[in-house]
Amino acid sequence: MKKSIIAALSSALLLILSLNTTISHADEASEWGKDVIKGQDHPMIKRFTGSWLTGYLAEEWNAATIPMSAQIDSDKKFKESLTLEGKVTRLLYLAPRGKSTLEVFRNYEQALKSAGFKARFSCEKDCAALYYAWSKLSKPTDGLQWANGSIYTPTGSRYSHSSSLSSDKGLMLVGSLKNAGQEVYVVLYTSVAAYSVTELTATFIQIIEPKAMQTGQVSVDANAIKTALQSEGKIALYGLYFDTGKAIIKPESKAQLDEMAKLMQTQTQQKYFIVGHTDNVGNFDSNMTLSLQRAQAVVEALSSAPYKIAASRLIAKGNANLAPVASNAEETGRARNRRVEMVAQ
């Protein structure tokens, strides 16, 4: 009698577990193949046919470090790497079950080369060391948004989407291509997704579009200007805006003009130089004229309503590109050099 009761309870428990497993698999199946919310392909590189976008991150401006050669030093770090600033997009896909890592990799490689891709290096065999060095250098999956559900296998086991990339059968390609005249950097990596039991291939693509950070988004307040003038005798102000090649001060400069005037109205005896600076693009004489005209525009704005700072307290000067604060070799440096300085007389 006891044996029959125990057997009946065991059967009931197995039935409950079976039902729970069925429901769980049904829930997983409902998420299978659905892209991460708000995720989308990059316009330059379309996904492998039938793939699922499981991880996604797009940042309008950030820094990213990528390897630039397959050589690794004794500390298991890349001997050559490059840090870039600009728009950064990271995408992680799962290919349809049954597609090999090599097939997926070759399709992406072919598409990139047909678009003019210039390979910096590639690895197609024994790439595990590169994978681990790259994971430490670039942290490819950090910050990604993930699709709902998880990776489930034909045998019923499951793995998180964040474990998709692995060293198993990994292949890597790094290089660049031109887009609208700009050099865009691409990292491509394919591998077995998590473990071989998934029978899936994961593909990671990182696209970096270098560009200068938008400057002048924060105006410097009167107290900060006062402190800088007391300690340095000058301050660079990036909240004063002009169109390229022009000297008409733009309306969005008002916040910075307000703070400059606030300080001048409390220190009524202090006089100032307003000095315009440019980058090194273009003719020097033209830059000298432009830098002076921009300084004059600031002086005119401050001496007019509503500020009405005495014009005798302000002297406009132009310095063209004679006093850079950064290298003009890159746009980020040129953006810093395009500035107006306030200098205590």
Describe this structure in words.
The strands form 3 sheets. The chain has a 7-stranded antiparallel sheet. It has 7 helices and 13 strands. A hairpin with a 5-residue loop joins strand 5 (151-152) and strand 6 (158-159). Helix content is 31%, strand content 27%. Residues 12-27 have low confidence and may be disordered. It has helices at 2-31, 101-114, 128-138, 222-232, 254-266, 284-303, 331-337; strands at 52-67, 81-94, 118-123, 145-146, 151-152, 158-159, 171-179, 182-192, 201-210, 234-237, 272-277, 314-318, 339-344. The chain has 2 domains: 29-210, no CATH class; 222-344, 60s Ribosomal Protein L30, Chain: A.
Helix-strand layout with pairing:
Elements: H1 2-31, E1 52-67, E2 81-94, H2 101-114, E3 118-123, H3 128-138, E4 145-146, E5 151-152, E6 158-159, E7 171-179, E8 182-192, E9 201-210, H4 222-232, E10 234-237, H5 254-266, E11 272-277, H6 284-303, E12 314-318, H7 331-337, E13 339-344
Parallel strand pairs: 11-12
Antiparallel strand pairs: 1-2, 1-4, 2-9, 3-7, 5-6, 7-8, 8-9, 10-13, 11-13
Helix pairs in contact: 4-5
Which secondary-structure class do the elements indicate? alpha+beta
What is the strand content? 25-35%
Low-confidence region ranges:
12-27
How many domains would you count in the coordinates? 2
Q: Indicate the radius of gyration in whole angstroms.
A: 29 Å
SS field, number of helical segments: 7
H-E order: HEEHEHEEEEEEHEHEHEHE
Mean pLDDT: 89
**Strand order, biggest sheet?**
3-7-8-9-2-1-4
How can the largest sheet be summarized? 7 strands, antiparallel
| Overall geometric form | elongated
Keywords: Cell outer membrane, Membrane, Signal
Main location: membrane
Protein name: OmpA family protein
Subcellular location: Cell outer membrane
